[in-house]
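User: I'm putting together a teaching handout on how multi-component assemblies are represented. Below are the sequence lines for each component of a complex, exactly as they appear in our records. Could you produce the 3D structure of the whole assembly as structure tokens, so the students can see both representations side by side? Please keep the chain order the same as the input.
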Amino acid sequence: MMKRKVNNRYTGIYRTSDIIDNLHIRITLKKLYSIIQIPKFEQVQLGQPADQQTTDFVERIELRWQEKIFSKTEFTYYSQKENCKSELEKKYHQIIKEQKEGNDNECGLIFTYIDDDNYQPNDNFGPNELKITQLRKNVEEINENKIDQSIGLFANENETSLRYAGDKNFIKMFIMADLDPTILLFTIQYRKSDGLFIVYPDFNDESNCYYLEIDQNSKQMYTYCMENLSTTSNEMTQKIKQKQKLDELQEETCELMKKLSFSIKDQNFNFPKFCRIVLLMEIESARFFDHDNLHVQFKFKLPNFVRVIEGKVEGATHSSYKNEKNIWNFGYCHCLVIDIDDEFLISNSEMDKILINFDVISIDNLWQRERREGITSIKIPLEETSSNTEYNLQCFRELQGGSSFVDFLERFFLGGIRSIKYNEHAQQGAINFYGNSTVTTGNLKVKVQQIRQIRQSYRKNLRIQSIDDIISSYHRAKAKLN
Amino acid sequence: MAEIYILGQILSAENFREPNLFCRWNIQAGSLWKFIEGESEGQTATDCNSIDQKSYFAHPIDLHLATRGIQGWPKLSIEVFSVNALKQFCPVGICFTYIPTKPGLHHLKIATWRIAPQTVLDSIREKFFTGGFTIVKKDLIHTGLERYKIATISSGIVRVELSVFFKHFRKYNIVFD
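Assistant: Of course. Below is the structure of the complete assembly, with chains in the same order as your input.
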């Protein structure tokens, strides 16, 4: 025989726009041993045994929507593979198997029946004695105060709850207590179409528990409660949205960062060991030369302490025929990357300059004879970046045969004879190196730009100026070593 | 990473014999460079104005580059095309120039050239049928020691206005002036 004493319990009917998966509840089941803790204990039993447990047994469990918790019977039943024939049973068997592997074999008093279990409680949903109660008043209060009602009380009438009891559109979840006999603690129903959420008995807390008295062989007292731990309002949805936005922002930021940097490894800027100079030379145009079909050969003459990193030290432009304005356009770009040890640089020294020699050559269309049209050169200082980047170079060539007439005949019939080596004519200290006559020819327009990357420990100030400096720096170094 | 912002425009093409000109342009840079934002290549509208042998484009260039080295400095390459009455176009000018290495506004005057016909027959063909010749292997016009074997005819000039901004270059010990 079983007797249950039921306190005032009400059905909570809510309407929520939030997703049901956000439901988070905590169930507390407490067994009472001490009568003092039972305010409405009616059947006090005198002469209780001395060894009676005075500490209350408490079981707390946090649940999500449609979270399956097995009872002891279920756990034993579904553990046997032979018992599991349907898909659901197999699924439960697999879950229990995993739980066993994880050494989670304990079954408490609280367990659940979810919608898939098709559990039908003996009594109808909601007690018959449902009344309009305080909860309804709460609704009115909420309406009056215009409190956020994303999960709010909707109604609390017996007829209403009964009306919903047989609705098959509801997804159900039952929270049970594995007592003797099994007790249905809470029933939760949710209808997705309109967000109707019904819970019986309604949410409460430990200060306002529901009481359960089971009077079988001995009287047992229990209290239980269900606390709503779900984040109220649309906070959860907002959090999810915020997280999504943050993720999107993070992705965008990552993409931008990827664009800005090739990779983590490549983020390091190239720091050369020595001073690095990039020489960008453009041979733009030529004018006032005698013959057509010109091209320009050039050669860089570098100091000994300069090392070529990239680019060629000599080259040639394409051949060009003049246009209507008697200008030969080349528009030729050449790049040379060099490394220099700037400790060796001495101010205003001829040694610290890069010499570029140009040789303007024309090719005869008929006999393919080459004629020198002019030679010229420029010196690019290594020490400092020159503010002047554009050069209009005046060219000259040797006068063949020593006279203009002979020169004309020789050039017309034989072509040019390159008696001067174009990479030697501007050597230091060579004044009329070959002892011959020259004649001014055309102009060559050249543009030279420099970019310098000085090394990190730029030691311009420590540049060696004299023998005394060398000796003193040697002593300093030796002292450091000691 | 050091960065460069290139803002400017292709202003005009001058001293070209052919009317109805348009330009195709692109900016090339070395492997250490990366294009962050903006178009690295483009094409201007066709300008039919041939008064004083000037064609105006006012075509914008807006580019953001990043680099981890000074090698492979960016280079502006422009090809000038002429459109005939049959809406056929042929190249009439090719030119290159380095992007200025100093910050600020720069007015560039870039000399152009085009491939010269090798034979008389080619000249006739160029004049009456196909228009100007182009190079199939484009890498030839960028490199090559024996480049003088490419015969070209000087064409007009292209005016370009570029504003160059540098960022973080000083941080990497790069000196411009």
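A couple of points students might notice: The CA atoms of residues 33 and 50 of chain A lie 12 Å apart. Residues 235-260 of chain A form the longest helix (26 residues).
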